[in-house]
């Protein structure tokens, strides 16, 4: 989704009023005004520095509503990154996302405001692990979640995101895929496509079962924490609550929810439902961003989220770090060309298969 071309030309007073209106349900005015000062400084620098800012749906509300030129889920941001014409892409997200932008658009300089923005899924698997799996299951195509680093993507046949994984697998039209590294996403997509997941440590079953995903035991450290009990407790308090869970949650959580989809799919579904109470099982900042949007449009439905469960990596990206990133042109994301070319094939194939 495109946000605000007009934002880059707003005066400080316009920026302040815009954010005061948008964020008033989330924080006190003095805090919004402090943030507005930083937002204004960042936006003033964009044009002169030939910068476009891409922001993931998990960015904190002042960055999401005030700074990002484009916001979206991992797939949408890949598409924006691929077509960006500015010299600098400042990526408000985590490292594997910024790396994907560089892989797809190598002539741009991609900046990530913090080098501490990792991801538990991306660090759960190495390129050598993938080579070992390919050796163990020769000829089986490797479908890799976008939440991985470039060298892993370079060993991959086709990438996927939470919004297109089932489509990609169906379009491959094969009985077996190596689906890595998220154990829970594999189980959720397998269930959607009517197959089973086995792991390389249960080899006998792999031989016996025809249609199968060969999985890996990586997990998102955020979504693995949600439980069906969380949902039952909220339903006990609000019997008509509409529950949305990201597919990185366990199978049991997704089954107990009313909807599961990518971050952008969840945002769209919130707009569609008429439920008075909505529970989001995903990074809390996304709930804040939805509340801010609803506040602006006079929508008084209540968005519930479990904010004790946070992504520590996404939280590394702050207004201060973003300002510094543009001022100092830091931190540049680079990918060795030999790896980039092979990784690009797997992402481009995903973009083709999910068109
Ligand atoms: P989306 O592709 O749904 O935006 O997910 C990215 C992510 O990291 C979720 O934890
Ligand atoms: Fe990675 Fe989970 Fe954070 Fe997403 S929410 S970036 S999958 S650790």
Order of helices and strands: HHEHEHEHEHEHEHEHEHEHEHEHEHEHH
Ligand identities: 1,3-dihydroxyacetonephosphate, iron/sulfur cluster
Please state roughly what percent of the residues sit in beta strands, choosing from under 5%, 5-15%, 15-25%, 25-35%, 35-45% or over 45%: 5-15%
Lateral arrangement of strands in the main beta sheet? 6-5-7-9-8
**How would you sum up the major sheet?**
5 strands, parallel
Which structural class is indicated by helix and strand composition?
A: alpha/beta
Cα distance spanning the termini: 17 Å
Kindly list the characteristics that best describe this protein.
355 residues, alpha/beta, five-stranded parallel beta sheet, globular, binds 1,3-dihydroxyacetonephosphate
Overview in brief:
With 355 residues, this protein is α/β, with parallel strands linked by helices. The chain has helices spanning 12-23, 29-46, 61-66, 74-83, 95-104, 127-136, 150-154, 165-172, 183-193, 203-208, 228-237, 251-256, 263-272, 284-297, 319-328, 337-353, and strands at residues 51-56, 70-72, 88-92, 109-111, 142-145, 158-160, 176-180, 196-199, 212-215, 242-245, 259-260, 277-281, 302-305. It contains 16 helices and 13 strands.
């Amino acid at each position: 989704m495109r946000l605000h071309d007009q934002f880059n030309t707003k005066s400080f007073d316009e920026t302040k009023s815009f954010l005061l209106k948008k964020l008033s349900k989330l924080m006190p005015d003095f805090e919004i005004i402090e943030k507005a000062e930083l937002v204004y400084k960042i936006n003033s620098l964009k044009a002169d520095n030939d910068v476009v800012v891409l922001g993931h749906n998990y960015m904190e509300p002042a960055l999401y509503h005030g700074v990002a030129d484009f916001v979206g889920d991992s797939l949408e941001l890949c598409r924006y990154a691929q077509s960006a014409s500015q010299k600098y892409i400042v990526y408000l997200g985590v490292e594997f996302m910024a790396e994907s932008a560089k892989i797809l658009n190598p002539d741009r300089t991609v900046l990530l405001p913090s080098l501490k923005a990792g991801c538990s899924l991306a660090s759960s698997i190495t390129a050598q692990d993938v080579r070992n799996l390919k050796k163990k299951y020769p000829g089986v195509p490797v479908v890799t979640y976008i939440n991985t680093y470039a060298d892993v993507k370079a060993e991959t046949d086709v990438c996927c995101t939470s919004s297109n994984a089932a489509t990609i697998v169906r379009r491959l039209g094969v009985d077996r895929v190596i689906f890595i590294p998220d154990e829970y996403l594999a189980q959720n997509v397998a269930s959607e496509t009517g197959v089973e997941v086995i792991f390389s440590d249960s080899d006998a079953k792999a031989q016996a079962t025809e249609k199968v995903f060969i999985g890996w035991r990586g997990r998102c450290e955020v979504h693995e924490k949600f439980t069906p009990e969380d949902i039952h407790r909220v339903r006990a308090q609000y019997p008509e609550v509409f529950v949305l869970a990201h597919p990185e949650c366990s199978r049991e959580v997704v089954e107990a929810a009313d909807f599961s989809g990518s971050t952008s799919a969840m945002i769209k579904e919130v707009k569609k439902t008429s439920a008075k109470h909505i529970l989001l099982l995903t990074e809390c900042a996304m709930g804040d961003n939805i509340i801010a949007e609803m506040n602006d449009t006079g929508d008084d439905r209540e968005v519930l989220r479990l904010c004790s469960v946070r992504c520590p990596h996404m939280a590394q990206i702050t207004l201060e770090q973003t300002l510094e990133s543009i001022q100092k042109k830091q931190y540049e994301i680079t990918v060795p060309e030999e790896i980039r070319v092979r990784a690009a094939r797997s992402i481009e194939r995903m973009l083709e298969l999910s068109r």
